[in-house]
Structures are given as C-alpha cells and as structure tokens.
Design goal:
Its EC number is 7.1.1.-. The chain is of the alpha+beta class. The chain contains 18 helices and 13 strands. The strands form 5 sheets. Strands 1-2-3 form a 3-stranded antiparallel beta sheet, with no helix packed on it. A 3-stranded antiparallel beta sheet has the order 4-5-6. It has a 3-stranded antiparallel beta sheet with strand order 11-12-13. The longest helix is centred in the N-terminal third of the chain and has 30 residues, at about 130-160. The radius of gyration is 24 Å and the shape is globular.
C-alpha cells in the first residue's frame, strides 16, 4: 500500500488499497477561503448555522462584522442535498410525483401541480374540470399552511414565541383537511399526471366550509397579536430593504417582489387551472422591506380563503382522471380494512374477468406510459414565487430530465443585498422575510 500527498494541499491525500485508490480529504481551508483579509484590517468572521434556530432551516451564513454591522454576507447551501431532480430520471412519469412533492416540503402540492402540468403539456392532455377545481382547492389550502409556517418561524426567530405557537396551531387545522382529502399531512403525491389520485372523500366539503367560517377570525387574531405590536414593527420596518429594481435584477419573485410594489402573480399574468375565472386580488405593499412581506403574506391568506370558497361553489360531479386508460393511473381507489388501494370492482375485473385488463394494469404499474419526445417549461405561483418545471422527454416511460426553477433557491441570492450594511440582528429578520425552504434549494 502506498500513500501520496499533494504538497500544495496538506489536507488531501490518497492511498492504494486492494479495493482501488482511496482519497482522504479534510477541512482546514477556513483561512484560505473565508478568513483571509488581504488588507489586514481587523474584522470578525461569524459562522451562523447550518444548525441554528435563527437560520431558517439547514442554511449556513458566513458574516463579516465590524462591531455589530455586517460588511459581507455569504450564503452556503448544500447541507440538505437529496438528488431529487436526478432521481426522477430513474423512475416512471407517475413515480416522479412522489419525488418532486418532497422538494419544497412546506408546499408539496405546488410541486406536484407544476410537474403534472408539465407532463400533461407533453402528453397533450388536460385534467377533467373537477380535477382542475380540486387542484386549485388543495393548492390554496396548502398556500395558507405554508404562509402560516412562514409566520410562525418568523415569530420564533424574532422572539415572538406566541406567534410561533399560534401559527403552528392554526396550520394543524389546514393539515387536518389535507390529510382528510389526500390521506397524508405532507408529501401527498395526490396530484397525478392526468388528474388526481382519488376524488374528495365524503364529508370533506362540509369540513372545508366549517373551516372557512371560523378561520378569518384566526387571521384577525394574528393582526391583534403582532401587527400593532411596537417591538414587532421596530424589528421589521426598514429591515431587509430590496426595491423592484433589485428584485428584477436578481430574479426574485413572490411576496418579496409584491412587497416592493409590483403586482406580479402568475395566477393573474399567466393563468393556469382556470385561475383567470376566480375573483381575487394580488396584495402588494410599497415598503420593500420585511414589514411589507409580512403584510403581503397575511393578506394572501385572506385571498386564498376567497378562492377556496369559489372552488367549493363550482364543484361539479365528474371524473377526476382523464379517460385515456393508457395514462390513467391509479385506477379508482377505495379505502379498505388494509388501507387505501384499488377498488374491489377494479380488482375483480383484472383478476377474474379480463386477461387483457390485467396485462394492461401490470404494464402500466411496472413500466408506466410513454410520453412523446419534447421539452416544456411550466411556471406556477407557489407561496414563495415562481416555481417552474423544465421537463424533457425522449419518448420513453421515464423523464430524460426534470429541472426545477425553485423560488427559494433564486430568492436566497437577495440575502447579501438585504443584509450588508445592516445590523447582525437584522440579518435574522431579512432571512425570515425571504422564507426559504431548504428542501427546494438543495433539491
């Protein structure tokens, strides 16, 4: 066995073993990459995160300080890598839904919808009207849940712990509804290419209407708790400033852009799933700071409640999956004593009545359907901004490429612009006002 070292890098080496060459690489580059100061000035380099209650997820910030003033802010990502985009290339088109739902894990239904709309565009099909309405319904419920987490974590990071406990308490009410509809509280895999996994269960519409009756009061309670609070205002106003010019230059979208005064919402400017037929406003602010982003998100919760009520009113009986049996998977599901599975009628048909149906079911489940060759880009409005799916097909039963324009990843670029020149305490408020979800950043 021989060992070799690179004289230029005392921290890296390799050795030959019976299994081949093994490389050993360690740290030790702090002074070279982050700690060196070419001008010899005194400064303090602070490493905040990636495991820290104020970094809003598994995010690392390297801050240069002069006193308590931030002179440089660097964002270090990559601590939550999942390889989701690459994994989708090794699964069939339907299985891809179970991967993408885990990217932005606070807005899973938006990932499912964006991905499925892209696949449907390649297929040249449209989900039935009832399925489209239910997609809007569950996505707006999910938007409320996501904004409640943004509010709760904002409160925790600012020291307003009652805001955190109340935010998560109200979110549980929304997750109860999503669990009733999809069977899961997160990572639902409910929206499928061609439609939905299953229809709304009996009683769910009534439960959503009950939710709509009392939830506006809960939103008003948040305003009573936080909006008029002098400390809350002092911590947020004029903090994390980024105007429209800065947002556009950095590609920042969502509540950050709307808080700078630009009413850019893809549900209005590039409608999908029939959003152009719903009556709702696009909340904006003119402050370009963390305070404006907080107010925009609070207003968006009320607008989502309006959209949910309209979706319930327009629900018409009908299928929730396309009629094409070469695409429609799963078959009609039912809840049995052993959990959710194919309905008894479908099992009886494929097991006792039609060998052709059994063969077709087997091939559809194991191999999947083929998608015509081509590439598409489909953007939708997630709670954090423009969520875009660039999907490429080579004509096979698996995606050739799935690349996601995740808003958290793009919006994080604004961290330095929002933080440098401000106080270290204001970095916390700026990051919280961006509301990044690291599952989407490190996908």
């Amino acid at each position: 066995m021989s060992t070799t070292y690179d004289p230029a890098d005392p921290y890296a080496g390799s050795r030959e073993t019976t299994e081949g060459r093994v490389f050993t690489v360690t740290g030790g580059d702090w002074d070279v990459t982050l700690g060196a100061d070419p001008h010899g000035e005194e400064r303090l380099v602070v490493n905040m995160g990636p495991q820290h209650p104020s970094t809003h997820g598994v995010l690392r910030l390297v801050l240069d300080l002069e006193g308590e003033t931030v002179t440089k802010a660097r964002v270090v990502i990559g601590y939550l890598h999942t390889g989701i985009e690459k994994n989708t290339e090794y699964r069939n088109w339907v299985q891809g839904t179970t991967f993408v739902t885990r990217m932005d894990y606070l807005a899973p239904l938006f990932n499912e919808a964006g991905y499925c709309l892209a696949v449907e565009k390649l297929l040249g099909v449209e989900a039935p009207p009832r399925a489209q309405t239910i997609r809007v319904l569950v996505m707006e419920l999910n938007r409320i849940a996501s904004h409640l987490v943004a509010l709760a974590t904002f409160g925790m990071e600012m020291g307003a712990l009652t805001g955190m406990t109340n935010g998560f308490r109200e979110r549980e009410l929304v997750l109860d509804l999503l669990e009733e509809i999809t069977g899961l509280r997160m990572n639902h895999a409910y929206i499928r290419p061609g439609g939905l996994a299953q229809d709304l269960p009996e009683g769910s519409v009534e439960h959503i209407r009950e939710f709509l009756e009392f939830f506006p009061k809960r939103v008003a309670d948040f305003h009573r708790l936080l909006t008029g609070q002098p400390i809350w205002q002092r911590r947020l106003k004029d903090v994390g400033y980024l105007d429209v010019t800065g947002c556009v230059a950095l590609g920042v979208t969502g509540p950050i852009l709307r808080a700078a005064g630009l009413p850019w919402d893809l549900r209005k400017v590039e409608p999908y799933l029939g959003y152009q037929t719903y009556d709702f406003e696009v909340p904006t602010a003119d402050t370009s700071d963390a305070w404006g982003r907080y107010l925009v998100r609070m207003s968006e919760v009320n607008e989502s409640l309006k959209i949910i009520e309209q979706a319930l009113d327009r629900l018409e009986p009908g299928p929730v999956m396309v009629e094409d049996k070469k695409i429609a998977w799963p078959a009609q599901l039912s809840l049995g004593p052993d959990g959710l599975g194919n309905s008894h009628e479908h099992v009886a048909h494929i097991m006792g009545q039609s060998m052709e149906a059994l063969i077709h079911h087997f091939k559809l489940v194991t191999e999947g359907f083929r998608v015509p060759a081509g590439q598409v880009y489909v953007p939708i409005e997630s709670p954090r901004g423009e969520l875009g799916y660039h999907v490429v097909s080579d004509g096979s039963t698996r995606p050739w490429r799935v690349h996601v324009r995740d808003p958290s990843f793009v919006n994080l670029q604004a961290t330095a612009a929002m933080s440098e020149g401000g106080m270290i305490a204001d970095v916390i408020a700026a990051i919280a006002s961006i509301d990044p979800v690291m599952g989407g950043v490190d996908r």
